[in-house]
Design a protein that fits this description.
Family: Belongs to the UDP-glucose/GDP-mannose dehydrogenase family.
Helix content: 40-55%
Shape: globular
Number of domains: 2
Number of helices: 17
Strand content: 5-15%
Keywords: NAD, Oxidoreductase
Oligomer: single chain
CATH class of the largest domain: Alpha Beta
EC number: 1.1.1.22
Number of strands: 14
Pfam family, one: UDPG_MGDP_dh_C
Pathway: Nucleotide-sugar biosynthesis; UDP-alpha-D-glucuronate biosynthesis; UDP-alpha-D-glucuronate from UDP-alpha-D-glucose: step 1/1
Bound molecules: nicotinamide-adenine-dinucleotide, uridine-5'-diphosphate-glucuronic acid
CATH architecture of the largest domain: 3-Layer(aba) Sandwich
């Protein structure tokens, strides 16, 4: 079996950066080069101050600190890294299309195609190309077609190796993966390529957790895994609305059903709605694929997961407005959290963006505090929606570094991200600061209802009456 000594990863994002850092840590005999066309991002990965890495992820800075410059390299020299590597991971973004056929649903594969063309142009010897990005089922055939028409006599073996890490726990997920999935051709050379990639993971993942499938099952399984996870969140969120009407308590319901080992307890936390770069994108993609094969009922079934998620975000914003006497115009509302979940600086599709947008439409004045998200990012997220002018966004929404001081004369606090630090705040002092009645809208079920109502707050927790 061929031995891999040089890996290149195209795309130094939330997946490429952490994944390659862990491979470099676990395989000191392999030189790993992560390349990106984004010069700023590569400069941040190479910053001597590890606090300035482009991605916040617990445990990541330590691994980068230990491997960078030894067998882990970040570079903008894409062609050079492709040329030198025996194995190339493609880990670029695959966002939802914003134009043309499939707009708003299909995955935009232009970055993937550019990578394939780049590899085809540069490669002078045989390579294993690994799809790490999440891709629609049958994408490998498009990549293969581009690579095989290069005319420079190079043999490419294409593998699908989707990533299952979750942000905020990426390093832990990579080190102790439930499973690693490797899809490839059933031909002798396809099987050999799967075994070569498997041997890399076997350095730290037990072999019985490394699953080999055909390439199409692997591509489709990634979309389906995300759809099933998101479906659980939408399912429990739908029941949270019913709990609020019936005096049932969503935490008690989650616990009661989760104890059934067939259901299981994970991913049953009711929230203001799921966010993140992938759940929505991947389900929309699944819906698009199903529809394009004429499977209307299948498409409608999965689309409902997204519809329920949108409803949950709107429902939370509506609860804030109706509780504040049906008007939030000119009222100061503090947002605790902007990231789509705790322990990440990623804000893509965060529920906070949509709740803020709905409240700004009602002319609320919002002040946001998030421990890891920059002011620049918050405004970029709002501006991207194009609901109002950038000037109006900056006039109506402020960003603060001081979560307690910000509550001076506020009408309400809305909790949008479950950052642990929010639990440790001096809530009596915050209560003193605020206008009365002082409201808390807990979109993450983070705080203790008894303690807060004792202080005097009017406290709403999603999924409880
Ligand atoms: P990202 O946007 O953080 O990173 C992608 C990077 O690719 C960017 O830095 C971009 O500049 C670079 N890039 C784009 N085209 C390029 C090209 N032609 N050459 C070189 N660099 C190029 O995206 P991400 O969150 O890392 O996601 C990457 C893929 O992994 C997506 O398909 C996503 O669905 C999937 N995924 C993401 C997660 C997650 O938690 N974020 C988890 C599992 C799978
Ligand atoms: C998710 C999957 O968990 C990963 O396996 C997958 O690799 C990744 O998508 C991807 O393909 O990008 P991620 O989006 O990073 O990971 O984070 P999750 O922990 O899944 O959370 C997603 C959203 O659901 C967050 O907004 C979170 O707050 C919300 N959520 C999650 C709930 O509201 N309730 C829950 O019980 C769980």
């Amino acid at each position: 079996m061929r031995k891999i000594t040089k890996i290149c990863c195209i795309g130094a994002g939330y997946v490429g950066g952490p994944t390659m850092s862990v491979i470099a840590k676990q395989c000191p005999d392999i030189q790993v080069t992560v390349v990106d066309i984004n010069e700023v991002r590569i400069a941040q990965w190479n910053d001597s101050n590890l606090d300035n890495l482009p991605i916040y992820e617990p445990g990541l800075a330590e691994i980068v600190g230990a491997t960078r410059g030894k067998n882990l390299f970040f570079s903008t020299e894409v062609d050079k890294a492709i040329d030198e590597a025996q194995m190339i991971f493609i880990s670029v973004n695959t966002p939802t299309k914003t134009y043309g056929k499939g707009k708003g649903q299909a995955a935009d594969l232009k970055f993937i195609e550019l990578c394939a063309r780049n590899i085809a142009r540069v490669a002078k010897d045989n390579k294993i190309v690994v799809e790490k990005s999440t891709l629609p089922v049958r994408t490998a055939s498009a990549i293969k077609s581009i690579l095989e028409n290069t005319g420079n006599g190079v043999d490419f073996e294409i593998l699908s190796n989707p990533e299952f890490l979750a942000e905020g726990t990426a390093i832990e997920d990579l080190l102790n993966a439930d499973r690693v999935l490797i899809g490839g051709d059933e031909t002798p050379s396809g099987k050999e390529a799967k075994n070569i990639l498997s041997a890399i993971y076997e350095k730290w993942i037990p072999k019985d957790r490394i699953l080999q499938t055909n390439v199409w099952s692997s591509e489709l399984s990634k979309l389906v895994a995300n759809a099933f996870l998101a479906q659980r969140v939408s399912s429990i969120n739908s029941i949270s609305a019913l709990c609020e009407k019936t005096d049932a308590n969503i935490a008690e319901v989650s616990r009661a059903i989760g104890y059934d080992s067939r259901i299981g307890s994970k991913f049953l936390n009711s929230s203001v709605g799921f966010g993140g770069s992938c759940f929505q994108k991947d389900i929309l993609n699944l819906v698009y694929i199903a529809r394009s094969y004429g499977l209307q009922e299948v498409a409608d079934y999965w689309e409902q997961v997204i519809i329920m998620n949108d409803y949950q975000k709107k429902r939370f914003a509506n609860t804030i407005v109706s509780s504040l006497y049906n008007t939030v115009s000119g009222k100061k509302i503090i947002f605790y959290g902007w990231a789509f979940k705790k322990d990440t600086n990623d804000t893509r599709e965060s529920a906070a963006i949509y709740v803020a947008d709905a409240l700004l439409d009602e002319r609320a004045e919002i002040t946001v505090y998030d421990p890891k998200v920059t002011e620049e990012q918050i405004y970029a997220d709002l501006d991207y929606l194009n609901t109002r002018s950038p000037e109006d966004n900056r006039r109506l929404l402020k960003v603060t570094n001081d979560p307690t001081l910000a509550t001076q004369d506020a009408h309400a606090i809305a909790i949008l991200t479950e950052w642990d630090e929010f639990k440790t705040y001096d809530w009596s002092l915050i209560y003193e600061n605020m206008l009365k009645p002082a409201f808390i809208f807990d979109g993450r079920r983070l705080l203790n209802k008894g303690e807060l109502t004792q202080i005097g707050f009017k406290y709403y927790k999603i999924g409880e009456s």
